[in-house]
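Q: I'm writing a short explainer about Phosphoribulokinase/uridine kinase domain-containing protein for a general audience and would like to include a description of its predicted shape. Could you first generate the structure from this sequence?
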Amino acid sequence: MTQQDTFYTTDITELSNRVKSNYELKRKTHPNERYLISIAGAPGSGKTTFANIISKEISKFANVIVLPQDGFHLYRSELQKLPNSEEAFKRRGAPFTFNPKAFVKLISQLSDHSITLKAPSFDHKLKDPKEDDIIIDNTVDIIIIEGNYVSLKDNEWNKIRNFIDDSWFIQTPESLIRQRIIKRHLEAGISSNEKEAIERTDGNDMINAKYIIENSNPTNVVIITK
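A: Of course. Here's the predicted structure. Afterward I'll give you a sentence or two in plain language.
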C-alpha cells in the first residue's frame, strides 16, 4: 500500500490545497466526473465537525456538499422486524443497523456529474431517516461522504472504496472519544444522568468505536485530533 499522508485537524489549509490539486487534476482527465472524498472515524472522533469545516474551505474553489452516512440508518419499523429486534434497538448505530446496500448504490452513481440525485438525511426528532432530503444536482463538483463505516472492510461497506478518489480517517484517542460521547448523550437528553450516559456509551458506542478502529481499511490520509 502507498504510504499514508498524515495531517492534524489544524492543517485545514494543507488539506484544502490537497483537495484542490487532486480535484483539478481529475477535472482535466475526467471532466464529466465529480470528485469524491470519504471521511471515516469512530463515533465522537469529530468527523461531522471536520467535514463541515473542510467543506467551507473547499467551497472557496468548488461547489461541495457533505453526504452523511446517517441517512442510511434502518427505520425503527425495520429494526422491529429483525429477529434480534431488542438487541438492534439497543445497538442502534452498529453496522448491522444500517442499510449499506442502498448507501453503496447511491455512492456508485455519485461520480456522474450530469445527473441529479436525492439522498436521505436523518431526522433526530423522528429518530428515523428523512427520504430525499439532500439534493445533489449537476452543479455539485465535490462530495464529502462522511460516516463511521465508510472505510469498513466488511462485505457491502468494503465496496465504497471502489468509488472514492481520496479516503480519509480521523484518528482520535479512545479516552477522548468516550469523554465526548458521554457528554453528547447528556447534552442531547438521550441519557438523563451520567450513569446512564456511561452505560450507553460503554454498552454500544465504544463497542462500535473499537470495531471501526480494528476493522477499517487503510486510507490515503490520516487526520490526527487530540
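A: For your explainer, you could say: The radius of gyration is 18 Å.
Q: Perfect, that's easy to follow.
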